[in-house]
Write a structure and sequence with these properties.
This protein is an alpha/beta fold. The chain has 2 domains: 103 residues, no CATH class; 91 residues, 3 Solenoid (UDP N-Acetylglucosamine Acyltransferase, domain 1). A 6-stranded mixed sheet has the order 5-7-10-13-16-17.
Length: 221
């Protein structure tokens, strides 16, 4: 088990999640199976959070998960729903956890979507992360969208991709490593080479050089 400090011990965290599910979705579906996978989920959380260089993800020298930090909890709920799905558990429970995440945090990331091992939600209210090929060190802010164009083609995304406020990538796109999509920008059915900053819309955009990863991944930047 990776070294991570938890705001709630694992058993209490399981109870906390189950109470939330029961409150929002008072049906007869048993969620006790969550306890079976909590170690795997925490392991995934620890791997992801350990790469984030931000004071809210650390307590002293330790990686920290705080259930009352909404970014932390949104990421945790994604990992939980996706872990249950990967292990062929009842998809109704996966759906409920996905829906709980959507209700609490206004983020739409379906349990079948395969986010990378290392990513960061940064106050992602209104963000929709659809089917795409994601890579590690993925950073996304609020009101962002990733998805298909007419449900045909999906983006392929490189490492160290950052989407800033209200940025979108839609359709047949191949985005290279270390790219940044600026606030209020849209990439539509287009490719972007590695180490670029994209600013604008399909009919009016500029591309600049991106020399460094976002500081959240490298505190020396």
């Amino acid at each position: 088990m990776s070294n991570i400090l938890l705001s709630l011990d694992k058993k209490t965290l399981v109870v906390y999640v189950r109470k939330g599910l029961d409150h929002f979705f008072p049906d007869d579906l048993d969620s006790a199976v969550i306890e079976k996978y909590i170690d795997d989920v925490i392991e995934r959380v620890a791997c992801c959070f350990s790469a984030v260089h931000d004071r809210y993800f650390k307590k002293g020298s330790q990686t920290y998960f705080n259930h009352l930090n909404s970014d932390h909890y949104a990421m945790f709920l994604y990992f939980l729903s996706n872990t249950l799905y990967r292990n062929n558990e009842d998809e109704r429970l996966c759906e409920k956890i996905f829906y709980l995440n959507k209700a609490l945090h206004s983020i739409d990331v379906f349990y079948k979507v395969e986010l990378p091992d290392i990513f960061l939600f940064c106050h992602p209210l209104g963000t929709v992360l659809g089917r795409a090929k994601y890579s590690d060190y993925f950073l996304v802010y609020q009101n962002c969208t990733i998805g298909s164009n007419h449900d045909v083609d999906y983006p392929v995304l490189g490492k160290y991709l950052a989407l800033y406020r209200n940025a979108s990538i839609l359709g047949k796109c191949k985005i290279g490593d270390n790219c940044k999509i600026s606030a209020n920008s849209l990439v539509l059915d287009s490719d972007i080479e590695s180490n670029k900053i994209y600013i604008g819309m399909p009919t009016n955009y500029i591309i600049k050089e991106s020399r460094h990863h976002d500081r959240i991944w490298d505190p020396k930047m």
